[in-house]
Amino acid sequence: MDFRQDLIDIVNKSGAHPASGVNHCLRVYHLAKELSNSLILDDEVLYTASMLHDTGKYPIYSLKNVDHALRSKGVTSNILQQMMFSPIKLPIVLDAVENHMYYSEPGRSDEAVYLRDSDILDNFGNIGLMRLFSLVGQDELIMTTENAVDRARLFADALPHKVSTKAGKRLAVKRREETLRFLAGIKRQTAEFAWL
């Protein structure tokens, strides 16, 4: 079987919520390629890290009170060693997975930097809003639509400053504007959020 399809199958069988499942992983991968189009990245490393970066939050792999990025690193290491993944590329993938969160410093490789920026960017703007509202009632931090609105505001304010590449920063401005337009419209249509 094809290695890339194997990774898709792993995510599909993990119990991942659609907001953080295969389509999220594929968007992160393709956005990282788009943002880094002037560089030559190791495509196998980028694809693998993109597909497995959130495994630690998926029901089949998650552990209570363990940061999902660290858990993802451990899960990814086990999966890739079983798949006989290149021992030279494995540390690069693991660094990218461990450091993909907005609260982490970017990893050491270009693949890690672009993976992190792309993951951050997938959390706001139109696509981020869609993901956020699909999690209402499914995530302990987003139990109500009010929680989702608050998180959208937080993401619009904080996440653009976490992006580190020039191309990512340009896109962050656009996605922030998309988020703010949405929030302004919702505010108008719900009597200052009273009718959410």
UniProtKB/TrEMBL annotation:
**SMART domains to which the protein is assigned, alphabetical:** HDc
Q: Where is the HD domain?
A: 21-124
Query: Which Gene3D superfamilies does this entry report, sorted A to Z?
Result: Hypothetical protein af1432
Q: Which Pfam family, giving just one, matches this sequence?
A: HD
Superkingdom per UniProt: Bacteria
- This protein is called HD domain-containing protein
Organism whose genome encodes this protein:
Desulfosporosinus fructosivorans
